[in-house]
Amino acid sequence: MNISIFGLGYVGAVSLACLARDGHRVIGVDVDRTKLALIAEGKTPVVEAGMVELVQQVVASGRVAVTQDTAQAVKDSELSLICVGTPSAPNGSQDQSALLRIAAELGAAMREKIGPHVFVFRSTVVPGTVEGVLKPILERESGKTEGVDFHVCFQPEFLREGSSIRDYDRPPFTIVGANHDYPRERLRELYGHLPCEFISTSIPAAETVKYCCNNFHALKITFANESARLCEALGVDPFEVMDLVCRDTQLNISSAYLKPGFAFGGSCLPKDLRATAYLAKMRDVELPMLGSILASNRAHLEHAIAKIAATGKRRIGLIGLSFKTGTDDLRESPLVQLAKHLVGEGMQLLVYDPNVHLSRLLGANRRYIEEQVPHLGQLMRPDLESVARDSECRWA
């Protein structure tokens, strides 16, 4: 395939080298003449393991060209990868100036081109950018219609500096956000041979998953570092502890707890987070992330309260009351807190939980519910059907 790559930083340069290695003809485009000169001489513009030999090899093969002529690069290719930088602006927003500029140039280039073209945006962009910002620019500047004369799609990259070639060849998955089959199949031609799942999704989902992955990676690093600081203060080996944590592949290193849902509760997580925060305070250890978890959990409960209030309904069906399915444990259940708030707001509550029978509650479990929702017995319904029938809004 004939491919043009716009932006020859880490992602663009590595993509150029790997695609040319795989037999494609690649045109590299960048505003930096120094980068173009280096590649033309068979030298790498980035410091990256394996790139010195690979760039030398692919340039010698004759499958690589470089230019600053956007129009010619689009004319001579079938598919373009856009890999320009999207750094942070001083206020924390995303600086899309380079991306907007290249989108306008690409659109102008399409005005003169005959035949379909696929624009693959790989630069990390805030959700909504491709369809809400870039596509209109391309259509305006080209005078053509996306989905008919050209196609846009988003393919998040997961290359890590220092291991980019290895990551290119063995990605966790290949995600393509597109609205039409044509761009999906062109990208399958490029990346379908890689040893990973090829996933088609919407453009907004593809844009968002990149942020979720990066945020999760940052969260994991921060969790390990905060845990290490606490371990050191306690005289415990942090490497031994984290090694043990990672050996649990059922709950810790797995998809467990990573499905969107309601707030957490129960007799373990809240109290252990509070104990951790107190322990850190007593030893003068700062744990800002761990210390904010309960506040975030409370915000999720308040989000649910706001969503229910926004319906304007007054008869609310609550399906489930215990802190998790399959138990009658009501201690620190967020659903109990939700029920308490709704009752306090004067709403008529109808509650059904097949595992909760007030007459069977004992000890701390019974004391907790008597303190939080003293008249719970009057709110309980014997079956799901009566809740569905008599409520205007249901929460499960």
Compose a concise summary of this entry.
This protein is α/β, with parallel strands linked by helices. It has 17 helices and eleven strands. α1 crosses α3, α5 packs parallel to α6 and α9 crosses α10.
Keywords:
alpha/beta, eight-stranded mixed sheet, Rossmann fold, 3 domains, single chain, 11 strands, three-stranded parallel sheet, 12% strand, 396 residues
Radius of gyration: 28 Å
The poorly predicted ranges are none
Provide the domain count.
3
Q: pLDDT average, as an integer?
A: 93
General form: elongated
- What is the N-to-C order of secondary-structure elements (H for helix, E for strand)? EHEHHEHEHEHEHEHEHHHHHEHEHHHE
Strand order of the largest sheet: 3-2-1-4-5-6-7-8
Strand content: 5-15%
Detailed description of the structure:
It is a single chain. This protein has 17 helices and 11 strands. Helix 6 links the parallel strand 5 and strand 6. The longest helix is centred in the middle third of the chain and has 32 residues, at 203-234. The two termini are 51 Å apart. The model has no long low-confidence stretch (mean pLDDT 93). The chain is α/β, with parallel strands linked by helices and 396 residues long. The radius of gyration is 28 Å and the shape is elongated. The strands form 2 sheets. Strands 3-2-1-4-5-6-7-8 form an 8-stranded mixed beta sheet, with helices on both faces. It folds into 3 domains: 2-201, NAD(P)-binding Rossmann-like Domain (Rossmann fold), CATH 3.40.50; 203-248, no CATH class; 295-395, 3-Layer(aba) Sandwich (Rossmann fold). It has helices at 10-21, 33-40, 51-60, 70-75, 97-112, 129-142, 164-169, 181-191, 203-234, 238-247, 269-282, 288-291, 293-311, 334-344, 363-372, 376-379, 384-390; strands at 2-6, 25-29, 64-67, 79-82, 118-121, 151-154, 174-178, 198-201, 315-319, 348-352, 393-395.
